[in-house]
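Exercise 7. Predict the structure of Ribosomal small subunit pseudouridine synthase A from Acinetobacter piscicola.
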Amino acid sequence: MLLEKILQSQGFGSRKHCQHLIKSGAVQIDGQVITDVKFKIAEQQLKFQVFAQQYQYREKVYLALHKPQDYECSHQATHHFSVFDLMDELLLNRGVQCIGRLDQDTTGMLLLTDDGQFLQALTHPKKHVPKVYIVETADPISPIQIEQLLQGVELRNEKGIYAASQAEKLAENKLSLTIHQGVYHQVKRMLAAVGNKVITLHRQQVGLLDLGQLEQGQYVYLNEQQIQAAKNQSECIEYLG
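Solution. The predicted structure, encoded as tokens:
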């Protein structure tokens, strides 16, 4: 592939700007400055430097972000910060999108990608990717409420029964809840349906990809094994951070 096209695909700007980067001597491969805009090189496993900064070629990008509170999953945030404010400009140029959304007051794992097929695979209603939430509640969690969450509850304006596949009490006012659907405000509405209220909500896990020790506001590129862990339900858990 032409080097200018590689740079453009990685988010370095327009074709004209990428040509300017090459002509000005800003691009190096294996320590060699490349000034030929028609320079061709295989993109697989390619590493290169722009202004002495190291980059790796990625055909598509897959990211896991530890979303902080008071951030919206929108490019045009209205009342809070945008999660895209936490992203590198190159990623924004690539058009990365959130895979699903977290409310502004919800923290935890948010996946992003510029791979449309991957996005659809994780958000398709038939996929039923498990998501694990840590929930702090206003009132103590009762055994009856745990049983109701596992058996399923009705949600207003939604069809069917919504049940947790796992509900474990962690403390008097804290539980771990695993759901497979993703309707609007589902966890908050399920807790309301059993007579409780969510105070704080944190998503710890998507598929078998666990947030681990990744700090709030930080993101990482997923490797192939972690990408599969995000999609799968029956392999080993992959931890981040």
